[in-house]
Specification:
By secondary structure, this protein is mainly β. It has 1 helix and 5 strands. The chain has one domain (12-62). Strands 1-5-3 form a 3-stranded antiparallel beta sheet, with no helix packed on it. A two-stranded antiparallel ribbon has the order 2-4. The chain is elongated and about 45 Å long.
Amino acid sequence: MYFPPTCVDTLSSCLYAVTNTSRIPLMFKWEMNHADARLLNVVPDEGIIQPNEKQVTICYILIPSHSKG
């Protein structure tokens, strides 16, 4: 996953498609510690992808709160 350089207190997002190639439903849930959750958000954070279904949008949102250095 690549995020371009992002200014403090602005957001940068990446969209990904995920495909369940199995024959059973795939349940997922993103869990992050509190410090990471302030920096990175995943939408949807949980759900079910049915067999051979493509989940079109999983959006990763980066919001830096301070600069490095």
